[in-house]
Amino acid sequence: MSKRYVQPLRIAIQWGFLLFMIYLGVRLFLFVRHFRSGGAAPFVPRADGVEGFLPIAGLLGVKDWLASGTINAVHPASVVILVTVVAVSLLLKRSFCSWICPVGTLSELLWKRGFVLFKRNLRPPRWLDVALRGAKYLLLIFFLYSIFWSMPAGAVAGFIYSDYNKVADVRLLDFFLHLSGIPLAVIGVLLVLSLPVRNPFCRYLCPYGALLGLVSMLSPVKVTREKMTCVSCGVCSQVCPSYIPVMAKERVMSEECIGCWRCVSHCRAMGALEMKLTGRKVVVNAILFAVLVVFLFVGGSLVGRATGNWKSQIPYAEYVRLLGQ
Ligand code: SF4
Ligand code: SF4
Fold first, then answer.
1. Cα separation of 285 and 279, whole Å?
2. Each residue of 132-181: pLDDT tens digit?
3. What is the pTM of this model?
4. Which residues of 271-300 are buried (b: 16+ CB within 10 A; e: fewer)?
5. Which ligand 2 atom sits nearest the alpha carbon of residue 256?
6. Which ligand neighbours the alpha carbon of 98 most closely?
């Protein structure tokens, strides 16, 4: 059966999450406005899911959790979301990148627009592509080294409970609300580059994607090609957003595979390309895959709530002190 339907389904899920994340951002904006207006603007509770935008706080929280045995009360949701995303990648490849992440959604929109505009997407020469892909691993090593190696557990705990970290989400909001100078130029360049090149930020610069890619190597599901039924049309390789030469593989083992199913959904040869469980002949159903991605991601937050590790315990008076100035 054709799997064409997977792409509209995936894109609907992507945009659903994108709209939800915009809603989280608006809620944070209204929350901050209340305190900065000295209480004149109505109080809107902060949605804790916004901590998904704080992966560094999540990493710090994981280290603190390992050292203390408890998840910190400042940004507990950042830890829960990070652990959930890693668990999703362990089971279902980097599906977070192609089904949920808002950066991935916007990036995909741009390279598809670029394809319409220029009739093709560009790929940097192999030597440059390999060198640039190394950048995200260097960033990942930098963050992991800084947090898990060079920072003592006491310093991590001290930072987590610092005024700076308590309003890390507000700082991020302010950063995007007042973009200017070099950050604005860098984002502008990345947006422009995202038209001719597929997912340049995800592919070259995102340390989160680097981490998930390494974890996803252990995933039991892989795109698998059946040589006997493949007609060597090359469509799978052409449509892959990660430039993986799918047609030349029997099983896609690459850490760059974002589990988007584009190759599988575009293959017209019956049974030639499937998402399969590693080492077995079991074909993964696309609807089941989609349901699992969403349920595992949402389920992680439900577990966080149920165990009391979701809601930030920063009191109202503390926000008055930190944001009312
Ligand atoms: S799209 Fe299908 S038939 Fe064509 S090369 Fe890829 S696996 Fe083979
Ligand atoms: S190999 Fe297939 S599933 Fe993986 S990124 Fe490429 S198109 Fe998507």
1. 17
2. 999 999 999 999 999 999 999 999 999 999 999 999 999 999 999 998 89
3. 0.93
4. ebbbbbeeeeeeebebeebbebbbebbeeb
5. 5
6. 2
